[in-house]
From TrEMBL:
Identification of the protein by name: histidine kinase
Keyword vocabulary terms for this entry: ATP-binding, Kinase, Membrane, Nucleotide-binding, Phosphoprotein, Transferase, Transmembrane, Transmembrane helix
Substrates-to-products reaction catalysed: ATP + protein L-histidine = ADP + protein N-phospho-L-histidine
Organism this protein belongs to: Rhodopseudomonas palustris (strain ATCC BAA-98 / CGA009)
Domain of life: Bacteria
Amino acid sequence: MVRLGFIIGLIAIIGVVLSGFSASRVYEQEAAIQRIALGRAIDVHASQVQDRLTERELLGRVASGLFRKPSVIKADMLQPLRSSIYTFKTDFVLATWVARLKPEEVPAAEAELTKAGFPDPTVRDYDGKPLDLSSPVPLDVVMDVEPRNAETMALTGRMLDHDPVLGRTFAQALAEGQPHVSDPVPLTGSGPVGVVLAAPVMNTDSSDIVGFVTFSYRLATLMLTNDDLSLFSVVLKDPSREGYELVADESGEITSRVAPEGANPMIVRTVTFGNRDWSLAYYPKIDPYDRAQKMALIIGLAGLALTLIVCGLFGYVSYSNIRLRREIQMRIGFERRLTAVIDELNHRVKNILAVIQSIVTRTLRHGSDLDVARELLIGRIHAMSNVVSLLSDSQWQGVMLKGLFEGRAIPHADRIEVDGPDIAVSARAAQSLSLLFFELASHSDEGLAVVGKHPRVVANWTVTGDGKDATFHFRWEEFNTSAATRRPDSEFGIILLDRVAPEALGGTSKRYFTDISYVYELTAPLDTVVDVYERDRTGQITAPVRPPRKSPKQPR
């Protein structure tokens, strides 16, 4: 009996020890899983917020850069930008043109506002009171708004220097010469709470700031959107009041509250917008340790109840531990791979944005005609958009070279005879070649040539050599054209043709006129052109993309 009791006691002790050990392990692992899931969800949200903020700051920089020698005494300065700013789809509430006027320019500004049909053309203070124009200090006056409606048009003519929030924002942007964002403020009077991004506009003839392009955004959709099914709630640390937080409810209404005592946020993330840092605090909606505690309790009770089969229980717990450990390792591995993919995507997006910024800057410089520059800018960005779409479809593993000659991205594609081997070019080469093809096609003669016909355009390429000595040769030739009939290449086009494209491919280029044609040739090592993962699919195709049209034989 004593021996039996001893054995039973021993089994009970073993069962308690095993149950306690199992419960502890399950608790730690479940808590780790919950913390990882919650932390990852917060990181994704903060990354998405930063991406939205970056897009909106980019819109402000692009919009301010599109101005060419602006006349500040005009009430329709946003007219050339309307199609461009809506293309970004950044859901701004209000865009305004705020001009820096000298006191003696106020009568002319009021005349412009009257001519534009705004309801109150009087230049006045931000609260509607008359201005004292005896001071020589320039005035920041709203001269144009977008969209135009009864509520927004009433804002024109207001001088914002004395506004307690926007006045500081303009002063900061003026001092830094960079876009600056305001503290949270009600938009359009009593509208929703948001922030105003002020981008200074420089005079192209000097470094003086002649005004500001502003964009107003709702704070709820910009940073504080909270999902009912989310694992956390997010608040914004109020930059204007220490110890206060801004929080959005389900309908998007923003309220201010005192930071709750004893309820510290799980994670605080900092995002950058308008040359300022914003702190987002994340509060978990569900205690990450609650599920772990429940699981540990169940395992402990089960272990105590099944002490007679402790070996089986121990085996089950061991198997469960291995399974949970593998799941954690798999999740951690997935997190690392996903982080690497996101980093790579951010890198590619930054590169594309840098290319677009270079296109915009070089297209709209040196006093170029605004209409021509706008058409070229739209076409170049369309060419970039087309190649990005093709690369996205191929998961950035390269595209077929002939696919870059699609009609939706290349002007006069129906008049281009394309011939060459079926080559899968790399992502980097595809971006350079897409802009190159657009530049060549957009500058081909659209009128009648000297022989009374449109130019006949032939684009062909060949590959010579084998292995590391393989060389890519590209030739573009426009027949029935000459230096007198062909539109000259733009400054951006010359840089692209002679320097950017050859350097990107590690090759050389040349362009010249023959007696009957204009020729552009590009030579580069094949290794810098083709996609290494698709090189096995690169084959020789002798037939052109489309059958050549039947027409009288052209002189060559």
